[in-house]
Design a protein that fits this description.
Layout (H helix, E strand, L loop, with lengths): L3 H14 L6 E5 L5 H9 L6 E5 L8 H11 L5 E5 L16 E6 L5 H12 L2 E10 L7 H13 L3 E6 L3 E6 H10 L1
Helix pairs in contact: 2-3, 4-5
Length: about 180
């Protein structure tokens, strides 16, 4: 589910731009595992990949999604978390290491985007990057409005790039560095 341009950016982030950044990788909203496949292939062997989803649809299952990731990705150090992230409190969310990359592709409603960004941004490494899927997609205005609301309330974060289908957010102090690296 990555457009070519976004595929290149995420590859560059995980393999080059964050070489010196210690941390794990997380995805909210896994569906069939297509994005998780890329993340699993690009993460380092020392990184854990956390996958959050509710799997409420009849045509989706953890087993099917896991089979897709195993077939096309790397299923080493993957941890499932089957839950509705919008119902979690920040204290409920724990990781072995701070996150160096979060791919947000969960609920596309305004309130859910604000909640996920608020709760998970506190789990990021200082140089961590949040990738927001479907940003500026006219079918999902809640993603853009939720992201803007989060940024307005949390002025330490900023968008440093927008790809074909994703916005890339980091701490303001690292935005210029990441822009130059891109």
């Amino acid at each position: 589910w990555f457009f070519v341009f976004d595929h290149a950016i995420i590859y560059g982030i995980l393999t080059e731009m964050q070489k010196a950044v210690d941390g794990d990788v997380c995805e909210i909203g896994v569906a069939f595992g297509r994005s998780a496949i890329a993340l699993s292939n690009y993460k380092r062997d020392t990184d854990k990949l956390y996958l959050y989803d509710m799997f409420q649809s009849d045509d989706l299952s953890v087993e099917q999604t896991e089979a897709n990731i195993r077939k096309y990705g790397t299923f080493d150090k993957v941890e499932w978390r089957i839950t509705d992230t919008t119902k979690l409190k920040s204290n409920d969310i724990t990781f072995d290491k701070p996150l160096r990359l979060l791919h947000l592709d969960g609920c596309h409603e305004h309130c859910a985007v604000v909640t996920d960004l608020t709760n998970f941004s506190s789990k990021m490494s200082d140089k961590g990057i949040i990738v927001i899927d479907d940003y500026n997609d006219p079918e999902y205005p809640g993603i853009n409005s939720g992201t803007q609301r989060f940024l307005f309330k949390n002025d330490a974060w900023t968008i440093f790039a927008i790809g074909q289908n994703k916005a890339y957010v980091c701490a303001k102090e690292y935005a210029e560095v990441y822009k130059l690296q891109l």
